[in-house]
Amino acid sequence: MHQYDQIRSGNSGFKIGIDLGGTKTEIVTLDENRRQVFRKRVKTPAHDYGAILDLITDLVGQAGDGLPELVPVGIGTPGAISPGSGMLRNSNTSCLNGKPLQTDLEDRLKRVVKLQNDANCFSLSEALIGAGQGFMTVFGVIVGTGTGGGLVVNGQLLTGPNAITGEWGHNPLPWKKESDGSPRCYCGKGGCIETYISGSGLAKNYRLKTGVDLSSEAIVEAALRGDRSCVQAMDIYYDQFARSLAHVINIIDPDAIILGGGMSNIADIYRQLPDRLESWVFSDTLVTPVLPAQHGDASGVLGAAML
Questions:
Q1: Rg of the chain in Å (alpha carbons)
Q2: Which of 103, 117, 194 is nearest to 157 (CA)?
Q3: Could you give the CA distance from residue 103 to residue 188 in angstroms, rounded to a whole number?
Q4: CATH number for the segment(s) 5-121+299-305
Q5: CA–CA distance, 126 with 138 (Å, rounded to integer)
Q6: Crossing angle of helices 228-252/269-278, nearest 10°?
């Protein structure tokens, strides 16, 4: 029996969720009606594991202040807990890798901590209370500094026996063209989808092709103004994005795809992807909508609270 099983779920219905990102950490407390009664966002000490433990401990103390009981905590973080070792792995916040994050936090907080990949938390939130409501199978996508995904079927989050369901960003870019190249990924491999369609991937690939150092935001804005090299970069980006999503559709055929993360705020994505997807999907029809997240960058922390 888990040493904190007796407080696994409190009678009050309050829930605490944390979105532990590489740049920011956000915490929310929800009441029994999923209304927010506390919310705070702070900078993540991304290179210091001990400082991250201290930060979460402090935030949970603030979020739980005045509540009638020790409330369970759900945490979304890049990477996932290894079913074999119990250690965190595959996180681009590298100081977390190889650490017993869940166990360390439960020891500090003296309560149950449920930990899931941040894209899984995002997908769960959007499927249950966001843009994916009413769809049976929802594939949630985070496209920001990195690229993640999660799969929710009939309101249930699927994680798989290896805890990697939805990790489409670390598959090779499909239907690869010679012009795509094979950029290296932090995971140690080359040509991962993440290295093309993440914000950092767009900026890096633009620099390799032009010699000009621009952020992904600057590239998008310049393309809207008609800058030729940026327009070309975005055309390549949309093509790579469509190939990547088509691969997912061909495998799981979801009822809806929900996009989150910084790159999902590009309005043109929702005009560009549908027609481009049709060129790659193995079907004579394509009815799968690609939709922006309803809760924006709050989806991750809300989904963590629902764990």
A1: 20
A2: 117
A3: 27
A4: 3.30.420.40
A5: 9
A6: 60
* pLDDT, tens only, 131-189: 999 999 999 999 988 899 999 999 999 999 999 999 999 999 999 999 999 999 988 89
Q: Tokens 């590298």 appear where? A: 94
Among 235, 205, 12, 16, which residue's Cα sits nearest to residue 112?
16
Q: How far is CA 68 from CA 5, 61, 228, in A?
A: 17, 13, 60
Residue 166 φ/ψ region, left for φ over 0, alpha for ψ in the -120 to 50 degree band, beta for the rest: left
Nearest residue to 204 via CA among 227, 180, 177: 180
Residue tagged 């549908």 (tokens): 274
Residue 8, pLDDT above cutoff 80: no
Grouping H, G, I as helix, E, B as strand and the rest as coil, residue 140 is: strand
Map out the domains of the chain as residue ranges.
Answer: 5-121+299-305, 134-293
In one-letter notation, the amino acid at residue 123 is S
How far, in Å, CA of 126 to CA of 264, rounded?
A: 14
- Same topology for domains 5-121+299-305 and 134-293, yes or no? yes
